[in-house]
Structure formats: structure tokens, C-alpha cells
Write a structure and sequence with these properties.
Elements lengths: L5 H8 L3 E5 L8 E6 L6 E7 L4 E6 L2 H4 L6 H13 L3 E5 L2 H5 L4 E7 L5 E7 L3
Parallel strand pairs: 4-6
Antiparallel strand pairs: 1-2, 2-3, 3-4, 5-7, 6-7
Helix pairs in contact: 1-3
Amino acid sequence: MKPTQLKSLQSKSKQLEVRMIYPERQGEPFRAVVESNEPLSHTVTIRFHPDGGIETECTCAWAQHGGVGCSHVMAVLNRLAARKHSSLSFWATPEEARKQKRRVFKLTRARGRESLWVTSRRPV
């Protein structure tokens, strides 16, 4: 399942608190605990693939029921992008992402078929 309100989710994700657990060795996944408005925190795992693919897992109900690109995943990706002084935008189709004339990444859920598209840009 793809979220229908991507821009709303992006906005929500910027308000979540993220505690990163950085990998000990190169190639291992990034993990984070994301504080949510809900009573529970969620654990997010991010794997970057050499082909530009990003595989994600989250413990929230949306992700557990097949959803891709929850606000918790977006929050972690935004935190990682900020380390490189970049900002991200999320898109439902590759065509929308390519129109931005930015670097494009494919975001998938672990063991999932649905995808979102992410563009990255550095501020001027």
C-alpha cells in the first residue's frame, strides 16, 4: 500500500524525534527508534543498496500491514539526509520524481512490491 497523503506525511515526519543507531560496519543497516504521538516508539531499519534502492522496515501498524513509506521511515531518512546537508521529497510515481530533475531513489518495504520514489537536493 502506498500512502495517499504524501505531503502531509512528510510534514508529520519532520516533527518526530529520531534516535539513530549507526551501523558498526559499512554495509550494515541503519536503525533508529522514532518517538511517535502514539504511546509506543517504533523501530525503523534502513538498508541502502548499491543500485540506489532503499529497503525499509518499521514496526508501526501501517508498515506491518503492507504499507510503504510511513512517517517513521520518512523521519529517519530525513535525519540521514540532514547529515549530508540534503533534503528529501517523496513521490508516488517515478515520473513525478524524475520531473524534479534531482537524484532519484526507489524506496521499498522489505519483502514488499509497492514502491515510493525519493528525490534528494542540497540547499543553495
